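# step 3/5: fold
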Amino acid sequence: MKAQLPGGEKYSIVKKLISDHNLHTICSSGNCPNKGECWSAGTATFMILGNICTRNCSFCYVQSGRPGPPDDSEPEKIANVIKLLKLNHCVITSVNRDDLPDQGAGIWAQTIRKVKQHNPGVTMEVLIPDFQGDKMLIQVVINEKPEVISHNIETVRRLTPEIRSRANYDLSLEVLKYISDSEIIAKSGLMLGLGEKIEEVLSSMDDLRNAGVSILTLGQYLQPSGIHLEVVEYIHPDIFEELRNKGLEKGFTYIESGPLVRSSYHAERHVHL
């Protein structure tokens, strides 16, 4: 498993713009191994609503705690940086904001709207939290019509209580079903190497297809620090390829599957499917 080292002109430009505008990315906050590759290609996954999450999932490197108030200027700043980077496709995610009355849905809507206003023609994937299953809040995001709405189920049903804080396997499926029923492309992702069995992964694939999910990512879990869950198993690349083929047979339109695959990896490749 070899990730590209950071460097080059585009990497420096992305890093400076993010710093100058006081923005956050899941690339840095989540300690993503692909930051060097993506930033060197001039892309990044922006993270809105701060960099402190109200949940404390045992796999995630993002800081947990009590967040500050949302930055009302954040949507405008995100839109401007995307314009400066001359992106044709962008990916935006967020921390969970269970502390807010609307769980951040309002800032989500403003961000999508501002990005489209400042960047006509840009396509967008948004990786959203579960909003505690509140369909009215999910609809706020849907109404802004991003091309892809993603929500990660993260792991198989059996391991969910151990791995995901306050999240529920079936609730996530309901969120994804609501998204797919809106006729927007629904996407999800699973981490492997946490002790799941192949049969459980295949069962989760069936659950996701039944929820209308058409795009799937499969990647190797990597322990981000000594206090997070340990890796149970390193999955061989051949298994990732086998799972990709089985998923396509099940009806997924597109699957990114490999050890270093993360939620937004090569996201621009499937937006027009």
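# step 4/5: annotate
Residues 9-269 form a domain with the TIM Barrel fold (CATH 3.20.20.70).
# step 5/5: archive (pending)
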